[in-house]
Design a protein that fits this description.
alpha+beta; Molybdenum Cofactor Biosythetic Enzyme, Chain A; Molybdopterin biosynthesis moea protein, domain 2; Molybdopterin biosynthesis moeA protein, domain 3; 18 helices; 26% strand; elongated
Length: 664
């Protein structure tokens, strides 16, 4: 009887190599791949070993037109507004809305030729016009005049400057895949070049005396080399750039030299065949000659003879010649390395069920596709509808899922569970922090900071106003809500509303920022607006925030306090959903004034009349307080990086952000 034992490493090397040449190779190869390390252990240790050696992401600059499928290396910001001019959204006539006031079915209004301009969809709006009436809603008269039977509201059927994208807004955060919609959004936003993660180059070395290039008439004993074609397609699907080298014969020096060449030219290397323990299998020895071997032999079948090697920070993966074995090995070991290079995870699903955070109304004539921002809150997948305008390309770029509303269905109610098609993988959605509430550009910066710290974590924000955010928290639909609600009796922010809507507690109010609110005015303040009440002066065109937003509540309060009749403010019912969108209208010349934050005015080089400093805080349910996502949000708010970005934006004060405010 004889016992079997693995020789010490030094002894094995002594038996197997002499001055770089394999000797007693049957004995050497017979002992060499006796490791049988568990798969998950091998994957983890391989990646950690390579990262310790310096394995990681590299960057390059590309044109936007060539950026599809690439991954951003840093946040991308719009350079111009989209659209960059006020455009007609319909075929019809442009006019001054006030000229149509009073028109009804029983009291129609007739307009002379000099009171309107015929426009087609996409045409610029004439300078003295502020509304469009559809061609279907006008009656043409023989004398060139037109008759209308309904008054036009200011700015109806007009695509506003910046309706889709506002200059200075973040289009994409760091480390995000560029979709076709994102390309359109960047071009619309004036971005022509950007920095992306460089595609890793993966060298593929086929080896074997019996291996021949693909042909139509192989001879007996010839084996067509098709593994490299399979591997190349897989690599391209994963975002890598394959580089296949000529077939190398089964000679140690030839394999070693080609391996060294590939390791110098590529970021990763696949050495195909020769990883077993056969008579002419030199792969392990060749890898050791130019680098190191972590493991030779993994506890998977097929694929056991895998070689996990490296030269410096460049992985060298030896895979078996059998195609199924080779596929399994590169899926288990190379794909995770490419994912780590890009900082991503792969868990793409198809269809699932989600809970709507807002009502979806649809017509009966068509099957409608509603784009959604999505994320898990607890065990429930929440879906927030995005803007549905056909020209709003940014909403498609931001979408995490798609809701298909069948023909003949009027829509779905808020809170209803619906079936959705996923556009992002479930792993990403489970790592998405859902924020619903008042808008502030700082949320974009928080999104980028969180994702930069951990590429697996995302933030999805929906702008529905402060009261909308409170209701979302009450319904359990969000991890956090941005709020800035003024108590007009005490001058205090947020606390009264928290006590009213959460009388039994169960939530935390987290300090975020103080921000300067005021009137954003056209550059140079040509109308001489000196106080809030001046918004009601003759000739002043106002642009407002949507009902339910903290800024709208503040504006309504100021009107009451200063005796301003909002019915006499031209454009008071004209609403935008973000501070930047208000600023864009003023900068574009379609409005003269609007309430907003200083950072938005500064971004668009507007004049600013300070009104007050308000508290913008985050409301967080107790049920998610101890989750990893919320903890990361709090860490970000307390970080130096957050402070630097917020101070650079201007108009904010920071007083212990991330701390809990005593409410109860």
């Amino acid at each position: 009887m004889c016992s079997f034992r693995l020789l010490p490493e030094a002894k094995r090397n002594e038996l197997s190599l002499t001055k770089g040449k394999p000797t007693r190779k049957g004995l050497y190869m017979g002992f060499e791949y006796l490791t049988n390390v568990p798969l998950e252990q091998a994957k983890k240790e391989y990646l950690l070993t390579l990262q310790d050696k310096g394995f990681g992401t590299q960057f390059e600059t590309v044109s936007v037109q060539e950026s599809y499928g690439r991954i951003t290396s840093r946040a991308v910001y719009a350079r111009i507004n989209a659209p960059h001019y006020a455009a007609s959204a319909m075929d019809g006539v442009a006019l001054r809305a006030r000229d149509s006031f009073g028109a009804t079915e029983t009291t129609p209004v007739t307009l002379r030729e000099n009171q309107f301009v015929v426009v087609d969809t996409g045409d610029p709006i004439p300078e003295d016009c502020d509304a469009v009436i559809m061609v279907e809603d006008i009656v043409k008269n023989d004398d060139g005049s037109i008759t209308i039977h309904a008054a036009a509201a200011p700015w109806q059927h007009i695509r506003q400057i910046g309706e889709d994208i506002c200059a200075g807004e973040m289009i994409l955060p760091s480390f995000m895949e560029i979709t076709p919609a994102a390309i359109g959004a960047m071009i619309a936003g004036g971005v022509l070049e950007l920095e992306v993660i460089r595609r890793p180059v993966v060298g593929i070395i086929p080896t074997g005396d019996e291996i021949i290039p693909p042909c139509a008439d192989p001879k007996p004993g010839d084996i067509l080399e098709f593994n490299s074609s399979i591997f190349s397609a897989m690599l391209q699907d994963w975002g890598a750039e394959p580089k296949t080298y000529p077939i190398v014969p089964d000679r140690f020096d030839a394999i070693r030299d080609m391996l060294a060449k590939a390791a110098d030219e590529c970021d990763m290397v696949i050495l195909n065949a020769g990883s077993s323990a056969g008579r002419d299998d030199y792969s392990t020895a060749a890898v050791r000659e130019i680098g190191e071997v972590l493991y030779h032999g993994v506890a998977i079948k097929p694929g056991k003879p895998a070689i996990l090697g490296f030269r410096g920070a460049r992985p060298i993966l030896g895979v078996p010649g059998y195609p199924v074995s080779g596929i399994i090995v590169i899926e288990e070991f190379l794909q995770p390395l490419i994912d780590a290079w890009y900082g991503r995870e792969n868990d793409k699903g198809s269809r699932t069920r989600a809970k709507l955070t807002r009502q979806v109304v649809s017509g009966l004539k068509y099957q409608e596709y509603v784009r959604l921002r999505m994320g898990y809150v607890g065990n429930s997948l929440m879906a927030s509808p995005l803007p549905r305008g056909s020209g709003v390309v940014s909403s498609f770029m931001k979408a995490d899922g798609m809701l298909e509303v069948p023909q003949g269905t009027e829509g779905y109610t808020s809170g209803e569970e619906v079936r959705v098609r996923l556009l992002k993988d479930k792993g990403q959605l489970k790592n998405t922090l859902v924020v619903i509430g008042s808008h502030d550009p700082l949320l974009d910066e928080v999104t980028d900071l969180i994702h930069r710290e951990d590429h697996r974590v995302f933030l999805s924000s929906a702008h529905v106003g402060s009261m909308g955010g409170i209701m979302a928290i009450r319904r359990g639909e969000a991890h956090a809500a941005g709020i800035h609600l003024l108590d007009t009796e005490t001058g205090e922010y947020n606390r009264k509303y928290i006590r009213k809507y959460f009388p039994h507690g169960g939530v935390y109010l987290v300090r975020c920022v103080g921000r300067q609110q005021g009137l954003m005015l056209q550059k140079g303040n040509p109308l001489g607006i000196k106080r809030f009440a001046d918004i009601s002066k003759e000739g002043v065109r106002y642009v407002n925030r949507q009902k339910g937003s903290g800024t709208r509540i503040l504006t309504d309060y100021l009107c009451q306090k200063e005796g301003v009749d909002s019915d006499r403010v031209y454009g008071y019912e004209r609403e935008e959903v973000t501070h930047n969108a208000v600023a864009v209208q003023i900068a574009g010349g379609s409005a003269d004034a609007g309430m907003g934050i200083y950072s938005a005015a500064r971004l668009y080089d507007l004049d600013f009349l300070p009104i007050c400093v308000e508290e913008y805080d985050l409301l967080i349910p107790e049920s998610v307080w101890n989750t990893g996502l919320v903890k990361q949000l709090i860490r970000t708010l307390k970080s130096d990086a957050f402070r630097e970005r917020i101070e650079a934006m201007g108009g904010y004060t920071l007083d212990r952000p991330g701390e809990i405010i005593d409410v109860f």
